[in-house]
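Protein chain data
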Amino acid sequence: MPSIRRFIWCSGYAARNALERKAGGAWGFAREEQWRGIVYSDVIIAAGFAIFVLSDFPPTQRFGLVVLAGCIIDILANLFVLPRLGGAGLKKCD
């Protein structure tokens, strides 16, 4: 039984390492793993607040537009800006 668990763990480990090398390290692996959840949740939130854009009351319309813009900025920041701030893509000095 332990050999089966080790085989499963090793095969998953090899797949993760291959993906890390291909995607650009741990940050690339994390982005590849998490982008769907980030985008889908923000699209659902944006769709819910987009109802406010259809309102006849201008402050409510503006609120809906601001939330939609915030969701777009959120997606871009989570997928591109935060990995850069965390050190992804920086070359190590020897």
Remarks:
- The chain has a mean pLDDT of 77.
